[in-house]
Write the structure tokens for this entry.
Amino acid sequence: KLSRLILGEIVSNTGLYNRGAKTRQSSQGPNIDYYYFIRDSIMPAVIIENAFHSNPEEERLLKTDEFRYKLAESIAKGIA
């Protein structure tokens, strides 16, 4: 739920393409997350990939203070 809330804020505030919220299950069984710091955290945790340097337009945006501020604000709003 947390990842979907953060994603919604990022997409609406930055105009980035919505690639969806995803999860990766461990081979150890259902409902066991693949990533250690999510699986063994004592608090809610998500991995956020805001934009990609392999995408020229997103790389250009990542180089601006304004865009990075929008990302940070979106993450904070999603958490709140």
Notes: The radius of gyration is 14 Å. The chain has a mean pLDDT of 89.
